């Protein structure tokens, strides 16, 4: 193969060098669009992500929280200044009759260059604005009233699961059946027992050993005694485990909010749900194909007091009105817990067990913005610096006061130092009274039977004396 001439190779090298130079120059010019510029930044009041600080007369005195620190970082690293102002409507944006309001409306009217709010992506929003500078993510939760602690009246049997209780009863029935079978086969083979083995005799023996009372076992046959000894050994282990665990179960209180999931909310029509106007929560619920969420969305649409523009209105609805909950981002719910809960006064708010629909969040810019790539790069550097992780480590923690630690069933348990309450003995007392009733019924049966037998004997004696 012939090599290209030196002049041709030189021309190819110059061409490639110029192409790289133009690409680098274009990229650099693109990456320096923000330098020396003054950005118009529109924002809203959505603590703890972004807060507008006002004095007693309502005038704005400053801004704070994570997104404002994010903006300060971008401003210093990308060398631009900014003029920040609040949106006329405290919402990301709602589209009515083809027109957007809120943050998105401000961007579309070219009144701002950057929307400093957490915005989740939807198709309708994507058709209006561009998303850049990922700032994290959040899920949807339900803010509810703090549930009152309660005790379980079935705590005496909750030491073991229902499967263990059923298995134990079946084991007793099986042992009775095996004992009767052994007695039957032994009798057929000519083995003589001093006392007849009956099902009720064996069952009574098993019960007496289970309650640690003991009883005489009527059989002298070795196979029967081995069977009884096996039951006694297992009953010893079972009873000791039960006794050692019962005290801890009797000293536990349980807490479960009435509305602990969206299924609960759908099946309780007496409850109303507040929601932030224009939020991703409103969009998700109103457009969800899930039947339960459709029911919730239908009630929100019919409710005249359920759509809110301010978070404090959502908090106050739960605190001050009966049968109200608020659907909001989980991080905002944590802010409510920190603000309104105190062990020294009273626990007032809690987050329900269920969270759903985690969404990534971004800043918002107009579609034609030349600053998208720079904001993306600056936001990635903000992440890498560890500043965001540091902020979230402080603000995303569930506050220790009034914390509900849910189990897999959505129930929070808490050990109580108080005395055991009467409610915890409801089930044992019910069993006691049922036992009294059954004993009385059996006594009546025996008495009636005894009277009928005595009358029959007298009649027979009368007939016998008459015949004589």
Short description:
The chain has helices at residues 6-31, 66-78, 102-108, 123-126, 162-188, 199-210, 222-250, 262-267, 280-286, 291-302, 311-320, 330-340, 372-384, 387-395, 426-467; strands at 38-43, 51-54, 60-64, 81-86, 95-96, 99-100, 114-120, 130-145, 252-255, 272-276, 307-308, 324-329, 349-351, 356-365, 412-415. The protein has 468 residues and is an alpha/beta fold.
Please write out the topology.
Blueprint: H1 6-31, E1 38-43, E2 51-54, E3 60-64, H2 66-78, E4 81-86, E5 95-96, E6 99-100, H3 102-108, E7 114-120, H4 123-126, E8 130-145, H5 162-188, H6 199-210, H7 222-250, E9 252-255, H8 262-267, E10 272-276, H9 280-286, H10 291-302, E11 307-308, H11 311-320, E12 324-329, H12 330-340, E13 349-351, E14 356-365, H13 372-384, H14 387-395, E15 412-415, H15 426-467
Parallel strand pairs: 1-4, 1-7, 10-11, 10-12
Antiparallel strand pairs: 2-3, 5-6, 7-14, 8-12, 8-13, 8-14, 9-15
What does this 3D model show about the protein?
It contains 15 helices and 15 strands. It is α/β, with parallel strands linked by helices and 468 residues long. The strands form 4 sheets. Strands 1, 4, 7, 8, 10, 11, 12, 13 and 14 form a 9-stranded mixed β-sheet that branches. Helix 2 packs across helix 13 (372-384) and helix 5 (162-188) runs antiparallel to helix 7. The longest helix has 42 residues, at 426-467. The protein is elongated and about 125 Å long.
